[in-house]
Amino acid sequence: MIMFTSRRLGYGLLVLGLVASFTFLTLRAIPGDVVRLQLADAPGATDEQVAQRAAELGLDQPVLSQFLTFMSDLVRLDFGTSFEDGRPVLEHITERLPATLELGLLALVLGLLLGIPLGVASALKQNSLLDQAMRILAVVGMSVPNFWLALLLITFLAQWFGWSAPLVYASPGENLGQNLTHLALPAFALAVGSMAGVARMLRSSMLEVLGSNFIRTVRARGASEWNVLFKHAGRNSLIPVFSLLGLQVGSILGGTVILESIFSIPGMGSLIFDAVQQRDYPVVLGCVIVYGGLFILVNLIVDVLYAIVDPRIRY
């Protein structure tokens, strides 16, 4: 297990380096002058002022030199400083990361709490009216964009019930009730896709397990139906769901970019959204690296959990 974990960490770091390199080169390929964009409020800026500002930001160097400097700083976990306010990028990330992690965790837990019962019920009532309704709901949930669903929720809840989420974000330490109320709608909008994916995967997996020979043997030995479903079939059916969760984390993290901007949540999603508009390269790169690191870490945890859920799996 230690060798497997070390090998996966090495692969993860390699992937993270490739992601950082690709993002760096892509940002440099975007048309437009970052310096002139920053000096837009000073239309009378001279060429000397533009050159001076480019030198301050390190943009006067060749792209290859900028890339080598960026990678050497990245090895030391130095993401540089923001072009906008000159603050270290790591400070921006540490301030915004907790809100994003809370929103993502709420969405993931809500998706599991809704998706697992729906998947189990659909499998136990195969081809029934309930099963067909669940399957349609799952397809719709996987097809609807989360930002569009969020806008519908905001509009209809305001029109039908006169209710809207708080406009000012409060951290859990400041006001837990306001915090949860603020995150309820975006968490649900993010969770719908996860719920649909978990429900479909669990239904398919449970039907396959329930039709296997070892389940017939367990039932022939007189085990209760509860024991058959939740001890034997349920545990084996969860393995594909764990694989799906690793992918759902990436979808949830990607969804936070737009939803945090819609709901005025001061997280990393809104941070990277604003940074892209302002061409704040260091902030964009720092956020992308953190997002990639979280995705790799979650998938590593999922791989380790395989051996816990199914004792037959050994690395």
Automatic annotation (TrEMBL):
Main location class: membrane
Protein known as: ABC transporter permease
Compartment(s) of residence: Cell membrane
Record domain ABC transmembrane type-1: where: 97-306
Family assignment from sequence similarity: Belongs to the binding-protein-dependent transport system permease family.
Record keywords, A-Z: Cell membrane, Membrane, Transmembrane, Transmembrane helix, Transport
Classification via PROSITE patterns: ABC_TM1 (PS50928)
The keyword 4Fe-4S is annotated on this UniProt entry: no
InterPro entries: BPD_transp_1_N (IPR045621), MetI-like (IPR000515), MetI-like_sf (IPR035906)
Keyword Glycosyltransferase: no
Ranges annotated as spanning the membrane: 103-124, 136-163, 183-202, 238-263, 283-309
SUPFAM superfamilies xrefs: MetI-like (SSF161098)
Membrane topology: Multi-pass membrane protein
